[in-house]
Protein 1
Amino acid sequence: ADEHRALFLIRARTDRLLISEDSAGHESLLEAVAQAPLLGSLEVQIPGNGKRKARSASVAVRVARVTLKPPPRRGAAKVSGSTEPLAVHAIWAAEKSAPQGAEPISWVLLTNLPVADFEAASEKIGWYGKRFAIETWHKVLKSGCQVERCLLETAERLSRYLTLFSIIGVRLMHVAYLARVTPQLPATEVFSQEEIAALHVRIHHARPPDKPPTLREAVRMIGSLGGHLGRKGDGEPGMTVIWRGWISLYETVIAFRAARQAGMIDSS
């Protein structure tokens, strides 16, 4: 990072050895952050997934300035990896008391950005908290859009392809998020009349009613097209079934457009 003047914020996966004389006498990363002064407490939002429920966590924030020893390297890594010590700020966000059955939050973040006070540390923790949405977006691109199956051979064409599917992925994530936080919002605020009509025909085999469905109802219908069963314990549709349902829905939208252009249905 120093060689390329890159700024970084990463989470430490394991404990790391330190150069003690540059780390307030501490020998290890976890020891240094555990003994760092408490700067304050912060609420972080943990989104739900298939393994955990969404919840809010109160974390204690501590910061230590440390210098990491370079790890021992073998083989190719010995040539490509840096052998220089690395001075960083270590930010520890540790949950005080997790709900029963939930794993306590314990994030040790490393950054070469300045962290002078509690506000700066809170900012970096907030940045790291965005990773959940970023991971979901990548899952949409890889599992839903299946961009890794793309056979385009030039960087320019691949870039255009990824740009297009990135826009689709962001829209689907936005729709799924709004359906959770504003479930009673009219679906017309997010979907076009054409999309709602096609969705209603696919699900109910009839013209859409005058009153549009709510956003939650529309997303559940899209999820059902993607294989979501909607049983009592199934929860809300996830991104994979929403993507599948979206593809199925747009097959109907395209068929509607073709039929309209051919004069087979009216344009209303």
Protein 2
Amino acid sequence: MTNRRHFLIGTGALGILLSGRPGFAADAATAFIDDLGGRAIAVLADKALAEAEREAKFREIFLAAFDVPAIGQFVLGRYRRSATPAQIEEFNRLYTEDVVRTYSRRLSQYAGEQLRTLGSQPQDDETVVRSQIVSPKGGQPVSVDWRLTGAAGGFKIVDVVIENLSMRSAQREDYGSVISGGGMDALLAGLRKKNQAG
């Protein structure tokens, strides 16, 4: 994976939710993304929260908005079929912990970027909300697509595509490389080590 892909997906996928000014919520899916941004920035702006409290609140927001089990199933891909039930259970737990901790902490790196939503459209069995990240320093806006499943009142995010780079596809590529080299146990060991390091 390139450094650019790591940067875009690693720091952008959630940090851009911290929008100081909402876009145009012309439909339920777009309104869902705008509302998510508003709730995230409210947590960040609460200076009375300790780091652990802030991370716990981000965790709650993240788990409510993202379909982590579905994303985890996708990133394992074909390797899921050969994994044991115990391995799948441990992966789901470790993956959720890793994703939530990683992105909840990166939310704190918000530096004034704004999310401008541009509306949504159906695509296969998902809804895609199109948006742009606008930096306070100027420059070219970054395009971001939020892929949702469900309907109004029950939307879940299953992917974030930044400048045509898919978060779930990038993770699938990375995890597949680890599994092909050392098996499912190698992936689990890596996730355990990462989570223990904090």
Protein 3
Amino acid sequence: MGKITSVRAYANNEVAYIAWDIDDRIDDCLGFEVTRIILDDQGNDTADRVKCAAWVAFKGQRNPYWLPQDTGVWPIQKMSWRDLTLRKKRRGAERRPDEVRVRYEVRPVGDVKPGLAPVPGQAPRTVTVAKRDSKGKPVIGANGKPVMIQDKEYSGQRRELGYLGPAVSSNKIHVTRHRGKFHSTFTNGILAAQWLGNVLLEDGIVGPNELIEKLEDPADPHRKYLAGDVLPLLREL
């Protein structure tokens, strides 16, 4: 049976790219669980271990609100992944600090069966979301505001998974905008487009010019979130 032979990770100041290789087909493999581990100043593991976020559901499941699950629920069904939540938190306009060191572990998973250690997980939770029509657009109520409902964060039954092999670690990487004489940063505008749509609906309504007003306000937290480290870097020049 095949196994993971190597894992490599690379990062800029916002996201990480992780890729791995196998020596042969891994029988019954449905994908890979990817876990981020924060390191201390000496390069040792801390207790901060988080499974990376994923958005692509299994066949028979749907993710209509585009809410993330971790890769123990929806494993990565290819040989590479971008950790978009390395700095950006999954929910809310918050970012983690840079100048940290991390590594990743990648582990193959398949349907659980006798002899396999089960992948920890939980059934879909109930969340408050804007009701959407068949085209995915928010349903507007008589008061002119989107209709908010309680619903499962994704539809379909949770697929019970088990580990098909041990976790393999990546190299250690430094999350920084400083590369020798060069400083580079990136905005979060494109990557956060769907996230921003959910943020604007958090209060149940998207007002006229709400997004424009946010982007024009230097103190707005969502503008700061989307700008990333670009504006602070410009002020350093």
Protein 4
Amino acid sequence: MTAGQAIQQALHKLREYGIGSPLTEAALLMCRVIQRDRSFVLAHPEFPLSPKDMKTFESLVERRCTGEPYSYIAGSREFLGMEFKTGPGVLSPRPETERLVETAIDWIRSLQTQYPGKVMRVLDLGTGTGCIAAGMAAGCRDIRVLACDVSPDALAYARRNIQKLAPGFMPGSRVELIQADMTAKNFESAVRSWLRREQAGEICVVLSNPPYIPSGEIGGLSPEVSRFEPRLALDGGEDGLLFYRVIAVKAARLLEPGGLLVLEVGAGQCEAVGVLLEQAGYKVQAPVCDYAGIRRVVTGVTAGHG
């Protein structure tokens, strides 16, 4: 059988199981099997498959039809032009989270023009694969990022990704990883311990893409999310706002005057999160939309600036 014939068979099966963009996904799965890029696969439908290749391809298609995320099958996902290892036990990077990182990068670059040579400290809450921390270090020079997560599985992925991507970080930038629970009483002391090692007093920017799905809605999500991705990275409590309440208070105590809190929010949560930040004393900035036009990033500035 040829690659083109196999893709056509898979296309119908993926469509039957409700997989979005079935042709694209079938072609991407074929890329994994024959170790060629998508342009080659689509341009050479006559490429012959060995029985072993065909068996492997069919196995991958079956996995995708169960709802297993393509990123888990592929073992990686692209984010801000970088490739991140991902798999069971960690939330795969999302395109909308790029807007979170880009917002913080713009803020820091603006500050660096005002204070040349100043080293900026950044806190990434719930780092997952490490995509936010790595995105910051690759986008800004002279920053130190503390990236934390409560999940040892997530931190294992983050550690591999940071080690692999560190050579591409901007000059003077680096990332440190710690296991920490942002809801724990000793969380702030763990962060301040890092600041002492860094010989710094406070943090310039706090970023987070926290769990924000209301507990009762998780079962209704697509199977690739509800069945495969870790509930720990999804469940935002009864109303989806549990972690925003925690972060708003703790970040305010860790940020320098005029420091920035940058949060990714779920669709429809922008106003509620903005109110939480105002109640915690932040000056809320204009929301940032994702590529679909959804208000996705909420930012607040601590007293003393803005």
